[in-house]
Every structure is written in C-alpha cells, then in structure tokens.
Please model this.
Amino acid sequence: MFLKVGSGRQWWLGAVIGGLLFFSLFLTAARAGELHRLAVVGVANKTGEGEFSNLLIAQGIAQLVAQELYDAGGYVPVEDNPEITGRINELLALSAQTDSGEAPSDQALNSGQGLGCEAVATVKIVKFSKSRSKGGIGPFSAAKVEIAVEVEISLKDGDKPVVSAKGRGTGVTKSQSFLFQVRKDKVNFDQTSAGQATLEAVKAAVAKLPRS
Model:
C-alpha cells in the first residue's frame, strides 16, 4: 500500500514539474514570437579618425549594436540570408563612405520593410579623442594614452517615432599602434582599449534607449 502511495506521489510530482516546464517553454516561444526583427543599417563616422570608416570596423560595430539590443530584450536579428545580408552590407558601406557624419537619412531608417524586419537602427560615432599622459619618475616613467569614444544610436520601430540615445566609453593603453584588433574578418572589441571604449559606449547608449 505504501509503495502505491509513494508511486502516486512521484507521478503527481513528475506531472507538476512536466507541466511547469511545458508552460515555461510555451511562454518562451510566445515571447520569441513577440520580438521584433532588427537590422542595423548604418554606421556613420563624425570624427576625424579614419579607422571608424573602415567597412569591416563599421560592420563589427553594427553587429555589436544588434547584439546589445538583443540582450536588452525586445529584438532579434533579422533573418540571415544572402539577399538580406548583402543589402545590409550595401547600406553599411554607403554610410561608412559618408564623411560628413550627418544624421541618418530617412531612407536608411525606413528600409525595414525591404529587409523584412520591423525595426532598424543606425549608429553615429560622434566623438573620438586620445590624450597622452606620462606617469612615474625618471627611466621608469611610462606614457599612457587615454581614449574616449562617444556614439549615438537611433532606433526606428515600426510606425513609432525615431528614438535616439548617446553613450560614452573610455579606455587606457600604453600603445598607439592600432585601435582595433581584427582576426579572420572579426573585430575583437575586448582586445584593445579603443574597442573596449566603443563597447562601453554602445552599452551605455542602448541602456538609455526608451523601452517599448
């Protein structure tokens, strides 16, 4: 008799746990269906630092912004297929070649329908500065370079008005040899002070964007 009761309790407990897991998966799937598809279609360089106009760097920053918006909730990257990826890269190349650093064009911010997504974002590198300081005394003194990056992210979600936010990041390095590390066509933002400052600036800007 006691074996039967124990088995019944185990069955009941298993059914409850299974039901909770199913409900959790159901909520997760429902939530995923609510997320808007997003494409980052422009990275404009308003600074005098030419490396930010490098297409590979611009693509890296675009991917960084898309990842941060996904992590913040509410968005998923637009479907990855050659046609859409090619169109996005064309828009990024166009913005990277524009040295004026003017505000993102309406055409870029209204390109979501053609890309099969509900939301689009653009980025401006607003400020970039390097200041050299010397620490220590005598032969053991070492020069340090302080780097500051400021970005502005603009986001258009469906028919809603465009929202924008700025973020700033800083970093310190002993070398001025390169700003970003690129390996196998991938920008490693965590490997250089400029990359870390850019990552910090993007995170700060995304955190300031209004939530739907």
Observations:
- The two ends are 57 Å apart (CA to CA).
